[in-house]
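Hello,

Our lab assistant flagged a job as stuck in the queue for most of the afternoon. It eventually completed. Since we weren't sure the result was trustworthy after the delay, we are filing this so someone can double-check. Below is the sequence as submitted and the structure that was eventually returned. Let us know if re-running is recommended.
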Amino acid sequence: MNPSSLEAKQLHQTDSGHSHPDMEEMRTFGFWIYLMTDIMIFGTFFATYIVLRHNTNGGPGPADLFDLNGVILSTFLLLTSSYTCGLAVLAMNKGKKQALIGWLAVTAILGAIFIGLEVNEFAHMVHEGATISRSAFLSAFYTLVGTHGLHVTIGLVWMIALMIQLSSKGITSVTKRKVNVISLFWHFLDVVWIFVFTVVYLMGVN
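-- returned structure --
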């Protein structure tokens, strides 16, 4: 192959590289865009709750319904799961597949307990007659807290599916991106919960 042909081939390969961006980076960027939309959704729900939190229609209010002991336990579990999720990322960066799967499993278990406590709280409130249609306050409460709980549940299903994929395929560029994304998603949910804990529960009881 003459030098001019070799140079043309290298130029073509370079151009091809520029025309085909890293798909894993593009998918991560797409997830950041999704998070921005989620922030807007939760921001709307928080604003709605703040406006409607005193509209109890003669029914029970936050101070009558909320048990801070249970909420503090839920908060501790979710924040701990954020820490274990971070340990999973560290294990991945060290190439330790079993440790990665193990920490993801611990994170999922803590998240599942959190959801169980939330479901129990909702069931207790409904038993006391505090249903979603009882007042504007309760409608806003169930919508905000329930939407966060739904996100946590989706994260759990996602995490379990990722653990199965890691078991079969190991740590690859694709699974690395997925672990980083689920970690980002989980930390985001923890930040949202801190706002829920403060705005809904602490401000409600006080």
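-- support follow-up --
The delay was a queue issue, not a problem with the job. The result is valid. The helical segments are 3-19, 23-52, 62-65, 68-93, 97-127, 136-169, 173-205. Confidence is low (pLDDT under 50) at residues 1-20.
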